Amino acid sequence: PGVPGYRSLREVGTRINQALIELDPWVVFDGLSIHARGEMAPLADAVAERVGEAVGLSVINRVHRFTEADWNKIQEEHGKDAWKVFDYGIGLQSIAASDGKDIVQVGTKGTVAAGSKERTSTLRAHKKSIADKKVDIRAAEAAGSYPYPADLRYGTITVLGKSPSSPLHCWLVDPDGGEGSSAAEVRILHRVSFLRDWISFVAPRSPVATALSTRLGALLASSSLADLDGIELLNGLGERIQFEPFAFGRPNSFFASKSVVTDGPAGGVVFQLSPSYLMFLGFQEDLLFLAANQSFDEILAYRAAGGSVNKTVMCSIPSGRFKYMRLPDAVRSVARESGGYVRFRLFGQIHYSPAGLAFGVLPMDGDLVR
Fold first, then answer.
1. 74, 93, 99, 273: which has the fewest Cβ within 10 Å?
2. Average pLDDT over every residue of 306-330
């Protein structure tokens, strides 16, 4: 939030296609795993790093039953007095996670080899880098100058092979710990921050987004989070914020002007990736109820069923923006305008994450418009 180029839906939308294109020439998904495209030049360092982050976080998610709602990015300092930090971990200004018992941090690396299980010189260098960083962190902790406590610090090194016969391999460097604190409170802050970010992304001017931002500020300033446990969010009139659940094919009021999955309780926004594809980004309505009710037990226990399913999405786009979009004639011929929005249906594969997110690419091929 607040970063130039990422402050609005329109700004974010212009960068989604860029992120997908960055991976396309280098990484191949074969239905079971991913590998580097062998005929290409050496994999770009930035791509290997991002694949390493994604795989490393996924592995630690399995170990601790985390979701993406539990993580936050650690901001590395720069300059002569900079701290060496792990990539992801604790604190709203860092990346770490908490399972309610332990505060966890992870440092991630990524590389490519002919065979993903080869112990190459690059792999050994990555392992040494992780070990050296742990030594520096322990020294800073002993001196009382390290601001990010943790109970466990993992290192992960992801190696992409160069053929389908060599699926990716993730090496787990032994976890190393310091002395953490307030693990349960850290997890609450991360998850409420996650709710705030996604609800504000989809509907930044909604009463629930405003109330949730205010509540997160109160939690961060509070000496006892328990004082706000179960205190429901209120709108500007002092009334409880409530939502009617998805029923009889009708979305709840929050998603009334948004793009929605037609046969399930999920909605969000769509962006144009190219003349042939839209991208749907949203979440399941469960997150709205979690945000409004503010039951910490429910927020901590929430874990949705993940998976990928072919779905129909009713796309809803403001009329003003629709005029300037590059859409196929097949889409424009079925689009209908009402109440300041243009709506049409597209069919594509929607991915559901354990944290409650829903997202997917929607082809605009004329045969797939429903």
1. 93
2. 93
